[in-house]
Design brief:
88 residues, mainly alpha, 83% helix
Length: 88
């Protein structure tokens, strides 16, 4: 198989994947990579839209997870602030 093809796949993965923040996010990213490799192994003339679609789905999942983490951090800050003000 053509090295250029695999370089494009690797670049697409790097472009669309966020840095995993935790084990669950890492598992999601690895699952997407395995799915992409399976598509490539199945058919060399894979449609890039399908590969990119998988990566975009995963990117959306990771973005939602990050959003949830951000909301939890804000809530924790508010709780700490409330506790600090009541302990004075």
């Amino acid at each position: 198989m053509d090295n250029y093809f695999f370089e494009r796949l690797e670049n697409a993965i790097k472009k669309f994947m966020a840095t995993p923040a935790d084990e669950e996010a890492h598992a999601i990213a690895m699952q997407a990579i395995r799915r992409c490799k399976a598509i490539v192994a199945k058919d060399y003339k894979v449609l890039w839209e399908e590969v990119e679609g998988i990566l975009l789905d995963v990117r959306g999942d990771l973005d939602r997870m990050q959003s949830d983490l951000d909301k939890e951090r804000i809530l924790v800050r508010e709780i700490i602030g409330a506790l600090s003000s009541t302990s004075r």
